[in-house]
Amino acid sequence: GFQNVNGNEVFYGRNKRFQSVQIGLAIPVFFGAYSAKAKAASIGTSIAKNDLNVQQRNFTSQYQQAIQNYLKSKDRYTYFVNSALVNAALILKNSRLAYQNGEIGYSEHLLNLKQVNAIKESHIFALLELYQSINRIEFLNGYPTTL
Length: 147
Hints:
By secondary structure, this protein is mainly alpha-helical. The protein has one domain (2-51, 58-141). The chain has 2 helices and 2 strands, in the order ββαα. A two-stranded antiparallel sheet has the order 1-2. Helix 1 packs antiparallel against helix 2.
């Protein structure tokens, strides 16, 4: 083909072309640096695996604790619903009747009302603990929370 060399058109035929090939081979001179990088990467992988195992054990422990808290809260709430609130209603009823009939004074009636209120307050706290334990389990399960 024709090429422009110093302002002149020169024809390069078959006999004026380059006919050579160059091949290169790279041999690492400092092999220790490469092996050190590979070893460091291997150590990094081992550390990451150990961290993962620790995190999995922590999560399992947290989840088991959340389940135990839920079961305890559920039992406590069930006690209040099935027993304590029934007793509180009975205390309230008997105290009102006794106060109306003059069998007890105002101060005794007031103490009974405080006891009933304490039972109802404990019932509400038991319900709160139950909901919090359910929320903790849902959080650990990855359920989305909405505000």
